[in-house]
Design brief:
By secondary structure, the protein is mainly β. It contains 6 helices and 31 strands. It has helices at residues 12-16, 147-152, 161-165, 248-251, 361-372, 379-385, and strands spanning 39-42, 57-58, 65-66, 71-73, 78-84, 89-96, 103-105, 112-114, 140-141, 184-187, 193-209, 216-232, 238-240, 258-262, 277-280, 297-300, 312-313, 315-320, 327-330, 346-348, 355-357, 376-377, 390-394, 410-414, 419-421, 428-430, 438-443, 445-447, 456-458, 466-471, 476-481. This is Peptidase A1 domain-containing protein.
Length: 488
C-alpha cells in the first residue's frame, strides 16, 4: 500500500479524528527480540496454532529459527495469519511491503469501518473479529517515550491527533515520558486511514529451533502493533513489511537478511486449502554457491532519502511476445532512478493490487498491446471496469486456458538490463463468464496518479506465480517465475 504522504487525502479525515477511541492497558517496557534465524510463513486462512504435542518455544532462547506458517490469496491481495496475545487470538491481515505498521481491529466496542463496501448491501455484514486486550495476559500499552510511539506519530502526517493538537512530537525522543503513547492516525494512499493506539503483546508463529522437528509455536514477546478501533477503507488489518522500526520483519530482527514470497494465482482466492510460503531469514536468500543466483533475475534495490522504508527498483521499458527482445514502450528516465526529492523509481508494493504506470508511458504500453492483440475490443466493459483495454477472447467453455489465447505476453525490462517475463495470467483476467463462445479479458494495469513519491508501482496482481526475494544483504530484489502452488 502506498505510503501515506504520497497522495492527496479526503476531508473526511478531520471528522474521523473526532471519533478516536481510548484504549487502556497495563504499563509496557520497550523490548525487542533479537532473533537472527529464518522464518517461513504461509499466506492462508485462520488455522489453529496449537496441537497437543506442541511445546511453546521462546524466540529469545535460540539463535536460529525456521518458522512455518500457512498464507493464501484473497480477492484483492494476500493474507497471512497473525497469532497475537496469550493465549493467541488469530487474525487474518494483508501482507503489505508498502507500509510499516502492523495492526488489527481491536478494543471492547464494535469495529467501525467507513467505505468498506457494505453501505449499499441489504444484508448486515458479519462482525469483524477484534483483538480483546483484556483476554491476553501478556498485553501492555506502549509508552510515549518508545521508538515505536515516535515512529507512528509521524511529523509529516497532518491528520495525526498529536499534530492536530500541536503536540511537540520531538519531545517523545527524550525517552523519559512515562505516559501511554497517545492515540494515532496512520494514513495510506487511496484515501485509507486507521485510528487507534499502540499496544505490545506476544506474536506467535509456527516453527522449529535449529531444524528440530516437529514444528512448534515460537513466541516473539513485546511485539508492537496498532490496536485499531476505527478505519476508512481498511476492513481487516495489515502486516507491515517495510524497512521501518514498526514493521514485522524489523521487530523480529530479519531486516539484516531479507525475506521472500511466492504469490498464488488469484484463481485460488478464498481457497484455504492451497497456500504459498513467505520466508524470512537465511532460507529466503539464494545459496551463495548458486552460480546463476538460484535462477532469480536480480535488479538493484534503489534508495530513497525521502522514503527510506520502502523497496524500489528501476524499470527501463516493456516488451511483448515470447522472446520479448525489443521494447515496444520505453520508460521515462524517472522510472529507472530516484531523485534527491525521493521522486521516481518503481515501488514494489504488495498492498497495491494492480501495477500503476504514469502517462505517457502507460498510454504507450496500452497502444502496443492493443496493436498486438488479434481480438475485438470490448469498449463497454472498459467503461464498466475502468481498465484501459478489454478484449473478447474466443473460448468454447470455462475454464479458458491462458496459454491457448493469442494475447501478447508482457515482459518488464528492469534496471540493470534483466527481463522479467510475466506469466500471462498476471497481466490479463477474465471479467465475464463465457457467453457466445467468448470471454472478456482485461489488461489489469492502471494509470498512475500524478504527484510526488514513486513514479510507478508494481502491484501484487503482477506478482502472481513470481517468487520475489528482497535481499537486504546485497541490496537487490530478485524475481523468478514459477508455479507458487507447488511451493505449498
Amino acid at each position: 500500500m502506498l505510503p501515506h504522504n504520497m497522495h492527496r487525502f479526503i476531508h473526511i479525515y478531520i471528522i474521523l479524528l473526532c471519533i478516536i477511541s481510548s484504549f487502556f492497558y497495563s504499563q509496557a517496557t520497550d523490548t525487542k527480540p533479537q532473533t537472527q534465524g529464518s522464518l517461513v510463513l504461509g499466506l492462508s486462512h485462520v488455522r489453529s496454532l496449537y496441537a497437543p504435542s506442541m511445546t511453546l518455544l521462546n524466540s529469545t532462547n535460540y539463535g536460529f529459527l525456521d518458522i512455518i506458517e500457512p498464507v493464501t490469496a484473497y480477492t484483492d491481495g494476500y493474507l497471512l495469519s497473525l497469532n497475537l496475545g496469550t493465549p493467541p487470538q488469530v487474525f487474518q491481515v494483508y501482507l503489505d511491503t508498502g507500509s510499516d505498521l502492523t495492526w488489527v481491529p481491536c478494543g471492547t466496542s464494535s469495529y467501525q469501518c467507513m467505505e468498506c463496501g457494505n453501505e449499499h448491501s441489504s444484508s448486515k455484514p458479519p462482525p469483524t473479529p477484534m483483538f480483546l486486550p483484556s483476554q491476553s495476559s501478556s498485553n501492555t500499552m506502549d509508552l510515549c517515550g518508545s521508538r515505536f510511539c515516535v515512529d507512528v506519530h509521524s511529523s509529516d502526517n497532518r491528520f495525526d491527533p498529536c499534530a492536530a493538537a500541536g503536540c511537540a512530537i520531538p519531545a517523545f525522543t527524550s525517552g523519559l515520558c512515562p505516559r501511554p503513547c497517545p492515540p494515532f492516525s496512520y494514513t495510506y494512499g487511496g484515501g485509507a486511514l486507521v485510528l487507534g493506539s499502540l499496544a505490545r503483546d506476544s506474536v506467535t508463529l509456527h516453527g522449529s529451533a535449529r531444524r528440530i522437528d516437529p514444528p512448534s509455536p515460537v513466541e516473539f514477546p513485546g511485539f508492537g502493533f496498532g490496536c485499531v478501533g476505527s478505519s476508512v477503507r481498511e476492513p481487516i488489518g495489515i502486516a507491515g513489511f517495510g524497512k521501518g522500526t514498526l514493521s514485522l520483519p524489523s521487530q523480529l530482527g530479519f531486516l539484516g537478511k531479507g525475506f521472500s514470497h511466492c504469490f498464488l494465482g488469484f484463481r485460488f482466492a478464498r481457497n484455504p486449502n492451497v497456500t504459498s510460503p513467505l520466508v524470512m531469514g537465511d532460507l529466503a536468500l539464494p545459496s551463495s554457491s548458486a552460480t546463476d543466483g538460484g535462477g532469480f533475475l536480480f535488479t538493484p534495490m534503489l534508495k530513497s532519502v525521502t522514503y527510506p522504508n520502502f523497496y524500489y527498483v528501476g524499470l527501463e521499458g516493456v516488451s511483448l511476445g515470447a522472446d520479448g527482445a525489443a521494447m515496444v514502450a520505453v520508460a521515462p528516465p524517472s522510472l529507472n532512478g530516484v531523485d534527491s526529492k525521493g521522486d521516481g523509481g518503481v515501488l514494489v508494493d504488495t498492498g497495491t493490487t494492480y501495477t500503476q504506470l504514469p502517462d505517457p508511458f502507460y498510454a504507450a504500453v496500452l497502444a502496443a498491446v492493443a496493436s498486438a492483440a488479434p481480438y475485438e475490443r470490448s469498449r463497454d466493459m472498459e467503461a464498466r471496469t475502468g481498465f484501459g483495454l478489454c478484449f473478447r477472447v474466443p473460448c468454447a467453455r470455462a475454464p479458458c486456458a491462458a496459454e491457448d489465447d493469442a494475447l501478447p505476453q508482457i515482459s518488464l525490462h528492469l534496471g540493470g538490463g534483466g527481463r522479467l517475463a510475466l506469466p500471462k495470467m498476471s497481466s490479463y483476467y477474465p471479467v465475464t463468464t463465457v457467453r457466445d463462445a467468448a470471454v472478456v479479458e482485461c489488461l489489469l494495469l492502471q494509470r498512475m496518479d500524478e504527484g510526488s513519491g514513486p513514479g510507478a508501482v508494481l502491484g501484487s496482481f503482477q506478482m502472481q506465480n513470481v517468487e520475489v526475494v528482497y535481499d537486504l544483504v546485497a541490496g537487490r530484489v530478485g524475481f523468478r517465475p514459477r508455479d507458487c502452488a507447488l511451493r505449498a
